[in-house]
Amino acid sequence: MVCKGYNYLLDSTGSGCAAAFAEIAGTLVNGCYSTRRAALRLRSVSEASWIRPQLTQKATQVLVQALVTSRLDYCNSLLAGLPACAIRPLQLIQNAAARLVLNLPKFSHTTPLLRSLHWLPVTARIHFKTMVLVYHAANGSGPSYIQDMVKPYTPARALRSASTKQLAAASLGGAPKFPSAKTRGFAILAPKWWNELPIDIRTADSLHTFRRRLKTHLFRLHFER
């Protein structure tokens, strides 16, 4: 398999594929198409020192979201489950973007900045995108290959959980050769993350309501702990 100019050998076992995919995802972050493009866009804005004084905070935010944040969000559900060290390059770019929007010094603490801009941190944005994909699949509107990985939980007998839109947990298929890689797979993480959501989010009757409640939930988890 070739990805972004890198060659990967995939064996026929699930664990081998999972390990290789984890390596590919890590390469995409650290290699790093998304990071490089986002960093270049951010640098092009921040280094144009004559532009920033002419822009309002709102105009700068719109510009950064169009040129930088969109790159951070591009296909970011593929990064679900990667360790914090792999996500850190993307988070550093978002931090720099927040400082640029608010016109603050390079080493300003960023947590209050992200909160004031109402920006979810990168890890939460990955979580958000993954759950939106699951919502589509659980409601029959997502791609078939994702629907195949997301199955509703069906209890052996009538239980209250049958009406809470829980998903069946995926099996690891025995002792995995690469446990960390396997447990990072979409089919494993998606049901786990979904079932951890509050019931009012899982049972939202529209995508708009689901997205609004999910963002509020993730915002509280990351900024109000």
Describe the protein in words.
This protein starts with a strand and ends with a helix. The radius of gyration is 20 Å and the shape is elongated. The longest helix has 19 residues, at 84-102. It is built from eleven helices and two strands; from the N terminus they run E-E-H-H-H-H-H-H-H-H-H-H-H. It is mainly α. A hairpin with a 2-residue loop joins strand 1 and strand 2 (6-7). It has two domains: 2-122; 126-223, no CATH class.
Topology:
Layout: E1 2-3, E2 6-7, H1 14-30, H2 33-46, H3 57-73, H4 84-102, H5 111-117, H6 122-138, H7 144-147, H8 179-183, H9 186-196, H10 199-202, H11 207-223
Antiparallel strand pairs: 1-2
Beta-strand residue percentage: under 5%
Radius of gyration: 20 Å
Which stretches of 5+ consecutive residues score pLDDT under 50? Answer: 1-31
* End-to-end C-alpha gap: 42 Å
Strand line-up of the largest beta sheet: 1-2
Feature tags:
single chain, 225 residues, mainly alpha, 2 domains, two-stranded antiparallel ribbon, 11 helices, 2 strands, 59% helix, 2% strand, disordered N terminus
Write a brief caption for the model.
The protein is mainly α. The protein has eleven helices and two strands. It has a two-stranded antiparallel ribbon with strand order 1-2.
